[in-house]
Write a structure and sequence with these properties.
Radius of gyration: 22 Å
Low-confidence stretches: none
Helix content: 25-40%
Oligomer: single chain
Number of domains: 2
Strand order of the largest sheet: 2-1-9-8-7-6
CATH topology of the largest domain: Beta-lactamase
């Protein structure tokens, strides 16, 4: 983990447990972009999509109490919504097969913005239950159904029936950016996120509280084994509120969940058979938590492992933003010649294409730089460059 930090691919808190005992925990790096405050294990992190586990489990708790069925329709709880709500079930919301679209809001949407969108929505993107379409409108309605059925706010429900019973004493919901004991997220230039309000109901956790959550979930303290396994059931193997899982018959092999929000990134890996739990929380997203988890899993098994390599995409996009295209590409040439043992060149074309696509997003106003990078891709990879780069050059050139 120290080597990963030295390579610039991990700044955060880590907790590893084996057979119910914490065998390693460490806070590595900085708590904010100033680099003056170091991380501590009692700091809370935004865990992104991993927080969706709470609304998924809440629905299963209410199902066990006989207060709802997964086949209930959204219109059963919100008859004021348009006719599409009569076709969307709670199960569709859980499995992301509702057909609810995911439009681009002009700013981060608040609860009122989402309600207004749903109340004026005329049609779904597809017939419910026929296609997987991941977006947070499903999550929003799951939380609102919990409130409608329980008679309390979603945040209060989570605090009373989940956080308190599992002694998740440091966990909080919807923390402000300047809240005490809350890590601040920053990019690879140590510039902190402009952390703006978003739709409500997101849990922030320490590594220890996340471990308590995993223990409580997999020892069936909140919901039964049957309910847990039902919640793992996705559409054609796609993810659910619990992320991803692998089963061998009726046996759960692993539970893995990844989350990201702004420059926060997190991952949860639990292997019931081996009794391994690996939790990674970072406030400097580099899309390496999965490869780091694999390395830690190998260590726990006594197998060979390697420290993951640094992402070209994450570093190149940051340098183009702050140093300009020419300086960034000179850096890229330098690492291509001198630092291939540190940076991941195994899928170089994909990394460059991801960077160009990131720059091409009209909200970022970097079309000219995106065109240059697409042109570089076509020049350097004439045999394997897809039509995508050529098409993007033509499209962006006409904007």
């Amino acid at each position: 983990m120290n080597e990963a930090h030295a390579r610039g691919i991990f700044n955060g808190n880590v907790l590893v447990a084996e057979k119910g005992t914490i065998v390693y925990e460490n806070a590595i790096g900085f708590a904010d972009g100033s680099q003056k405050q170091t991380l501590e294990m009692d700091l809370r992190f935004n865990i992104g999509s991993m927080a969706k586990e709470f609304d998924g489990v809440a629905l299963m708790m209410l199902k066990e109490q006989g207060k709802l069925s997964l086949d209930d329709k959204v219109s059963d709880y919100f008859p004021e919504l348009p006719p599409w709500s009569e076709r969307v079930s709670i199960r569709n919301l859980i499995q992301y097969t509702s057909g609810l679209p995911a439009p681009d809001y002009p700013t981060e949407p608040l609860d009122d913005d989402v309600w207004q969108f749903l109340q004026t929505l005329e049609q779904l993107d597809f017939e419910p239950g026929t296609v997987y379409g991941y977006n947070n409108h499903n999550v929003f309605l799951r939380k609102r159904i919990v409130e409608k059925v329980s008679g309390t706010s979603f945040n209060e429900f989570v605090e009373q029936y989940m956080l308190a019973p599992l002694a998740m004493d440091s966990a909080a919901i919807d923390l402000a950016a300047d809240a005490e004991k809350f890590a601040k997220a920053f990019n690879n230039r140590f510039i902190e996120d402009d952390y703006t309000p978003y739709m409500s109901g997101w849990v922030q956790l320490t590594a220890k509280d996340l471990y308590r959550w995993v223990q409580g979930l997999h020892s069936y303290q909140l919901i039964s084994k049957d309910s847990l396994f039902e919640l793992f059931t996705g559409y054609n193997g796609e993810q659910t509120p619990l992320g991803h899982s692998l089963f061998d018959g009726e046996t759960l092999v692993y539970h893995y969940h990844h989350g990201s929000s702004y420059n926060f990134e997190s991952s949860l890996y639990h292997n019931p058979g081996e009794q391994f739990t690996v939790l990674l929380l970072t406030n400097n997203k580099n899309f390496n938590v999965g490869s780091l988890t694999n390395a830690i899993d190998a260590i726990l098994r006594g197998n060979e492992y390697s420290v993951p390599l640094a992402s070209i995409y994450m570093n190149l996009r940051t340098r183009i933003f702050y140093d300009g295209y020419e300086n960034a590409m000179q850096w890229y040439a330098d690492i291509s010649s001198n630092e291939r043992a540190i940076y991941d060149f195994s899928d170089e074309l994909r990394e460059l294409t991801k960077t160009a696509d990131y720059l091409a997003d009209e909200q970022r106003g970097r079309a000219a730089q995106a065109i240059k990078l697409y042109e570089y891709i076509v020049q350097q990879f004439p045999a394997s460059a897809t039509e995508h780069a050529k098409q993007q050059i033509e499209v962006l050139g006409h904007l």
